[in-house]
Amino acid sequence: MTIARAARRCLAALLALLASAPAAVAVAADFDLAVTKSGTGAGLVFSVPAGIDCGPACVAPFASGSTVTLRTDAAGASVFAGWSGAGCSGTGDCVVTMDAARSVTATFESTVRRLSVAKGGTGAGFVASSPAGISCGASCSADFPVNGTVTLTADAGGSAVFSGWSGGGCSGTGACTVTMDAAKTVTATFESTLRTLSVTKAGTGSGFVSSSPAGIACGDACSAGFPAGGTVTLRADAAGASIFAGWSGGGCSGTGDCTVTMDAAKAVTATFVTNASLTVTSTSGDGSLAAILAKLNEACPGGETRISFNIPAKTDPGCDAATGICRLDATADPVVRCSGVVIDGYTQPGASPNTSTGPGTDAAIRIELGKPGISPHTAAKAVTPGTFLVQGAPTADGFAEITGVTVRGIAFPLHRLVLAPGEKGGKPLGGGGHVIAGNAFGLHADGTPSGTFAGGVALTGNPMAGVRIGGPAPADRNRFAGLCCGADAIDAWGAAGALVEGNLVNIDAKGEPIAGSGVARGISIDGNPAAGIPDSRGNLVRRNVVANTLETPVHTGAGGANTVSETLVFGQPAGIPGHDFVSPAAGGRNAQQPPVVSGVLAGPDAVRVAGKATGSPDGTVRIEFFHNDSPDTNGDGRAQSFAGAVDVKLDAAGSGPFAATLPASVRNLAATATDAGTGDTSRFVDPRSFPAIAVDALALAFAPQPLGTTSPAQAVTIANTGALAVSLAPAAPTGPFTADASACPGTLAPGGACELGVRFTPASLGSLSGELVVHNGAGIPVVVSLAGTGVADTTAPTAVIAAPATGRIGVAIALDASASSDVGGRIVQYTWTAIERPAGSTAFPSPVVTLDPAFTFTPDKLGRYTVQLVVTDDSGNESAPASAILVVTDTEAPTAVLDAPARGVVGQPLALSGARSTDAGGGRIVRYTWAAIERPAGSTAFPSPVATPDAGFTFTPDKGGTWRLQLVVTDDAGNQGTPAIAVVDVIAPDETAPTAVIVAPANGRIGVAVTLDGSASSDVGGRVVRYAWTAIERPAGSTAFPSPVVTLDPAFTFTPDKLGRYTVHLVVTDDSGNESAPASAVVVVADTEAPTAVIDSPAQGVAGQPLALSGARSTDAGGGRIVRYTWAAIERPAGALAFASAVVSPDPGFTFTPDKGGTWRLQLVATDDAGNASAPALAQVTVITPDTTPPTAVITAPAMGRLGVAIALDASASSDVGGRIVRYAWTAIERPAGSTAFASPIVTNTPAFAFTPDRAGTWRVQLVATDDSGNESAPEAAVIRVLPLTEPSSPDARLRVPPLVQEGATVTLDGSASTDRDGTIVRYQWSALVRPPGSTALATPVVTTGPAFTFVADRPGLYLVQLVVVDDAGLVSRPDTAPVVVLRKLPPVRGGR
Length: 1393
Description:
Layout: H1 3-20, E1 30-38, E2 43-48, E3 53-54, E4 57-63, E5 67-74, E6 78-84, E7 94-97, E8 102-110, E9 112-120, E10 125-130, E11 135-136, E12 139-145, E13 149-156, E14 160-166, E15 176-179, E16 184-192, E17 194-202, E18 207-212, E19 217-218, E20 221-227, E21 231-238, E22 243-248, E23 258-261, E24 266-273, E25 277-280, H2 289-298, E26 305-309, E27 326-329, E28 335-336, E29 341-344, E30 367-370, E31 386-390, E32 394-395, E33 398-399, E34 406-408, E35 411-412, E36 415-419, E37 423-424, E38 427-428, E39 435-437, E40 440-441, E41 457-465, E42 468-470, E43 479-480, E44 490-496, E45 499-501, E46 504-505, E47 523-526, E48 540-542, E49 545-547, E50 554-555, E51 563-565, E52 568-570, E53 596-602, E54 606-614, E55 620-627, E56 641-649, E57 655-663, E58 670-675, E59 692-695, E60 699-701, E61 705-706, E62 714-720, E63 726-730, E64 737-740, E65 747-748, E66 753-760, E67 766-776, E68 782-791, E69 806-807, E70 813-816, E71 827-836, E72 848-850, E73 854-857, E74 863-873, E75 882-888, E76 903-905, E77 910-913, E78 925-934, ...
Parallel strand pairs: 1-8, 9-16, 17-24, 25-26, 26-29, 27-30, 28-31, 29-34, 31-36, 34-39, 35-40, 36-41, 39-42, 40-43, 41-44, 42-45, 43-46, 44-47, 45-48, 46-49, 47-50, 48-51, 49-52, 53-59, 60-68, 61-68, 69-75, 76-82, 83-89, 90-96, 97-103, 104-110
Antiparallel strand pairs: 1-4, 2-3, 2-5, 5-7, 6-8, 9-12, 10-11, 10-13, 13-15, 14-16, 17-20, 18-19, 18-21, 21-23, 22-24, 32-33, 33-37, 37-38, 53-54, 54-57, 55-56, 55-58, 59-62, 62-66, 63-65, 63-67, 64-66, 67-68, 70-73, 71-72, 71-74, 74-75, 77-80, 78-79, 78-81, 81-82, 84-87, 85-86, 85-88, 88-89, ...
């Protein structure tokens, strides 16, 4: 038979079976078995039959009804801790019946714990562990057996000390022992014995910073380590055109040397600047103006250098703390040598420049230049005046030209400011571009005069071009006062293109002249061609104020071509020309006639002036106007402020009219005239010599006025503000305007005023205009513009309301006024008022104004609402009131709501409620009518309806069955609502007790919850509502289920805590309060569960060394205790004899010594006091043979080096077959004669090493490497040829020390090999860079004049000693260091062996 035929026959048989079977045939299905791994360890789970074979998790299907056996294999340093799920527990095989999908968890726990070590602190060091595992620099970690101990040791390296442990329960500096009962982290802190000094360069310039002792030698930034507690001196040297601006940080400031105490890491910033922004911070010494200028003059940086001020006035001894004024005392006269220097005294806190636009000043100067030893108010005539000199740097044959220096905000009570030219071969050169502004000369900063004969500002040049003294802004104003003895305020020789503007000479701060002046000339601009100083040309002198000079106030010399304008000069002594700006010696005419002012008109927008000027035929005269708040009774323009100017072109006869418009604020006008051709300037015109009037309005605007009506009058006031009577001749206004001129006489006396009343009478609609002209004796007509609008429409609009006749409470009522109308315009406002409302209503309480014709309100009371409407059109006309009446009545029936219980009991009262009934019509419910419209047969209770005013009603049913109840409610308007119905099921009382039934397991286990089920309990007449459980019997000592428990659910759970018998009673209660008879159940708890064995063992061992095993974590979940531990080696390496047979012990610990390397598979079986034996626990230990193979040392080194330059050696190519290299020992086995460097072996923990050769020649360096088993390599050597380096002129330090000494011995340090090629060593400085902890030897550097020094080695360990030598030229050598190893002093040996 073929396979195909057989398959067809099987299929046919199956179809026949299905056809003959019942309607449904159950076909077996597969179920999934899911296995999950948990815990801290690792292992494998597999199944029999095959299917499960997985790591973290897996799922496989198995046939329904089959059984699957799961087994485990713990991996590495892990143990299997047990099963959970699908009825499995313990550590044996897990057998699962696949009658449904099942899930099982296998738990593996690790037998090791991770120890992590980190390094902290500022130093370096090495940490190692016992047993081996930790051997690291920065950080490392390793696994160790759980509950074992690990001992950590720390070894500080180089210039560091070990300061202690933290974490893992460790502290102090001794060995750290850690118990590995959990993962642990330990930190080893190493602190450096050096402190880092970091230097950073800042600023726009460049320079170099060096240190003593040596270490810092850097450009942009550098750092070096120095002994803790020592001092380091830093020096800054500016490069090129830079200057050193000062130190910050590290406790340093100023520009001198910076000394830093190295009690901690320090950071210092050195600032070098070009185009600098420098700050004066003190009145004397470092940070003073004198110090900054001296430093700046050494090397001018180029570009602009700004010098500001920030002197602490409260603490600086040169300042007055009360006034904030600081007095700069220089030991010599200040000199500025660099172009582009800006000295700004207004940057000092509390200082501020002038803001007054009048002739005075409100400047607050806080910086004053004084003279040493002179108090602020010493009589200055007895003091030799000083000079503040601005002159270029000296050259081989003179001085360089200097440009662009600015000085502002400084008081010069005792100094003259001199702007000097360049000079070559004794002949003056040029310069210029300087600005002198906002200063005070001859005055102290507080404004008191000094009386100095120093003068103010002097300049000389060939030429000195573009200098500005003062300036156009109020802040630029210089003030010269307090000068004596014939000094000039401003003295310019050879000036070209200079601007002298806005300066005050002999004027006090209020703008008044100062009497008794000693100033010869206020402003003098001249030249001396014979001396190489050209005539001053092209200079502009304007808007200055000069008073009371001994000579010509403004002198412009013989050169001419200089302009003097808008400058006030007054108060001149007799015989001194007051206004001759060209000296009579230079040919001045002093012949200009003052202008003739015909009149002044002051309006609200401007002041208009008219008049006539005379002068040179066909010439030009400039008319300049000045004013003051009060009349100038002297007539000389005193204390006047400049108001404006106008140029007048004269005709052939030398005459020409002028008209000027000046600011409206101008009052008490005065004027002068200057001939543009000759430069002559007239005296001031007396303001009392010309008529002047003022008008308060030049335009009147009238409100819209109905046609044919006249507006109220608006007034135009005309006042005579001059000293002369003025004639007035008002003309009739043009347009629809009239004026009443009767109040204005033909002549208006000085100080008089009159009003012209103007009215508007429109004859046409729209905008209308006109003009009122008043001619007057001032010669400037008053022209007033008039404007108004003619309007019409006086017809009232008509109001119409559309509204419903009735409404309901709470429903909005819409009122409509859109039918309102206005014949002559449009309605713009609707005013609604409720003139009648029901009593108690708060709806629509006050009139409402709307812009739209629609309005809505909501009635809140029943009754009559009368609403009135008034409309207003766009002409303001109001309508007659329109009214509408709205009646709100209640026609809506209330709604009944009947609340009743669903069930009742015969003979017990039944409460009904209609409280949730409502009346939406706005009324209130006043009657509740209750009725039983259906009752059980035979009932006589509640036979007829009952009406109540209250919403509650109670009756007692007398029969069980269905009761159909009804409620009808009636409101206060008589409206009756639809009936509300409720159905109540009334039952007879239940007196039958329920039956209690307990379903419980016969047996239980300690710690496993037992579930009791009372759901089979029953009640014939009702339902069970309460279950009361009581443990009437428990094993001795049990605390489980201590007292009765009442539940509402039939299920109850308790957890047995002792072996023995538990008897539980159940009493149930039904919903009628009937209680059942007690039902009982007995649960017996016995120990039938095997304990769980757990082996803890190390992952690795060493042949010949004891191996400790522990079963202490084995447990007995069945409630008993483990009494026997059976140990066996079920797998051993070939040839092993140790642990040949099983060992039984009552203790959980066991130790044996493996005699062969390889895999040892160990087993533990635990047996409890009930005789239950656990499944075997397995552990696998890899035993290794001790490493005796030495490592191989390899040195990588350069073939040649350079004397004094560090040579780097690298041993990273070294290797170890059986472990790893942990120590590198370096020895110089051959050195050039006389060398003291690298004198003794050096041991490092890392493969990198460097040394600095101190002699040229052949160096042979040897390396021995040691691995983590203590095996040492064969020596490996490298030969390096060190070439000589050209020696500097500084000395060469050579230090020789004994390499090994014993604790307490005296150590001699020998520097006699130190040399100096071109001088003599005069000083030896000895210091210890590294000392053992607790040592006080050589704690601070020691200086000797001889080459030897001794100290007592008071602690064992490493001393790293340094020698620096200094020769007779002050040159310092490079440091030379040498190690001294001090051995611990051993106690004397007693007895023998």
